[in-house]
Structure formats: structure tokens, C-alpha cells
Recover the amino acids of this structure.
């Protein structure tokens, strides 16, 4: 452990699996206390069970909460619990929560379009708004938000109009936040993963993956930990002059 974020308090959404779980693991390894949240409480409790702890008394410095990021009151309830336990808001906020409801535009239902926007884009917006406010009110210094976008935010993707729109929105909400919150010393960046081995990409048909792999310079799909390492760097003071960036983590994928 290098202690990249030692002593920091981190809040990670979508922490029950995939990139969110890996992010919790890397941040904990690097010395952070982690609040892991997800819509699936069992999964996020399992995530907490995998985290390293540096408490001398043997207790865990980490916490798990049931949170629906598309619901403002759910997020505020989690923040209240954090303030009660840790007496401060997190200085690291990572928005990993995301869903897909894939279909071609002519077959894509209004409900499926709205569900994806509500979690991926609205959820990111709400977490940013609520936690940035708490950070400002508590005069937390050196805060960093890392939002998870996607390579498809740049290029679009067949059958993913809702997902692509949501992730493109995340990129621009992040850039807008930079303009509004830099005066408070808060940084915002976006990570754009390519094909990463997660429960979400496990749903991609094998025939599609067979076409995708040759487009990736590294000739393989990525691992969640490879994205999490970038997130941890952006969350740390080592990236203090990186603000408003959208960083590809895609193995050299050419779409």
C-alpha cells in the first residue's frame, strides 16, 4: 500500500460489483475509509467484506448503505448517516452507478430510456449536487469527484441510444461542474472505460464481443481494477492539476 489517499473518506456508488467494487478495494488499499453504496444491499455488504482495514482495534472503518441514486431523499439519507458516523462529508466521491436497457431506437421503450437516464445521468447529477453542497458547507479541502462515463459517450453505439446519451451527459455535467465549483477547490473528472469485464458487459452477446476484441489494440477486454487504479489517481492529490478531463481507459479501442 502506497497510501495514495491515506486518511481520506470516500463515497462510491454502484459499489456492489464491477468497477464500483474494484474502486472500493483500491481506495481502501490506498488508505481511504470507504462508504460503499448500491441498490443491492447484499452485494455492497459483500464488497465491504473484501476491503482492507487499517484499524488498530480490528473494527472496520468502512460502511455500506442501500442507496438509489435516482432518488434525492435516498442520497440525502446516506449523507446524513455519513455525517453522524464520520463527522464530515467525504472528500472523494466516485459515481459508478449505472445500468443498461439496450434496444434499437425503433424498439426502445420510453420507460427503458427514462430508467437509464434517471440512474446514469440524473443519479450522477444528484450525487454531485448533494455532496458538493456538503463539502462546501463543511469547508472540506482538496475534494475530488470522479464520474464514470463511457467510450460510447464519444462515438455512440447501436442499440444504446439511452446509454450513450446518459454517458455523454455525464461528461458535460462534469465539465460544467468544473466551471461552477473550482472556486471552492473541488475538482471533477470523468473516466471513459471501454469494454471492461463486469456484470454489465457479461450481458453482451458473444457474437458482438467477437467483433469488438479485434478493435482493441491490447487485444482483450479490460479488468475493473485497471479502471479503479485510474480513479484512485484522479481522487488523489497526485492529480491536483487535472480538472475537467475525460480520460479514456479502453486498451486503445478504435470504434
Amino acid at each position: 500500500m502506497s497510501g495514495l489517499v491515506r486518511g481520506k473518506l470516500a463515497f462510491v456508488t454502484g459499489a456492489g460489483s464491477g468497477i464500483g467494487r474494484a474502486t472500493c478495494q483500491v481506495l481502501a488499499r490506498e488508505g481511504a475509509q470507504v462508504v460503499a453504496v448500491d441498490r443491492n444491499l447484499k452485494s455492497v455488504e459483500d464488497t465491504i467484506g473484501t476491503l482492507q482495514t487499517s484499524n488498530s482495534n480490528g473494527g472496520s472503518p468502512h460502511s455500506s448503505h442501500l442507496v438509489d441514486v435516482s432518488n434525492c431523499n435516498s442520497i440525502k439519507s446516506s449523507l446524513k448517516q455519513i455525517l453522524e458516523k464520520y463527522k464530515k462529508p467525504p472528500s472523494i466521491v466516485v459515481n459508478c452507478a449505472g445500468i443498461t436497457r439496450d434496444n434499437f431506437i425503433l424498439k426502445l421503450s420510453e420507460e427503458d430510456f427514462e430508467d437509464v437516464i434517471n440512474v446514469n445521468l440524473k443519479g450522477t447529477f444528484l450525487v454531485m449536487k448533494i455532496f458538493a453542497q456538503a463539502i462546501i458547507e463543511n469547508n472540506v479541502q482538496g475534494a475530488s469527484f470522479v464520474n464514470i462515463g463511457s467510450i460510447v459517450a464519444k462515438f455512440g453505439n447501436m442499440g444504446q441510444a439511452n446509454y450513450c446519451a446518459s454517458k455523454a451527459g455525464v461528461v458535460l455535467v462534469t465539465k460544467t461542474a468544473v466551471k461552477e465549483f473550482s472556486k471552492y477547490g473541488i475538482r471533477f473528472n470523468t473516466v471513459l472505460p471501454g469494454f471492461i469485464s463486469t456484470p454489465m458487459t457479461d450481458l453482451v452477446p458473444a457474437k458482438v464481443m467477437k467483433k469488438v476484441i479485434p478493435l482493441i489494440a491490447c487485444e482483450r477486454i479490460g479488468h475493473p481494477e485497471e479502471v479503479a487504479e485510474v480513479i484512485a489517481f484522479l481522487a488523489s492529490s497526485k492529480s491536483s492539476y487535472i480538472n475537467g478531463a475525460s480520460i479514456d481507459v479502453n486498451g486503445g479501442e478504435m470504434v
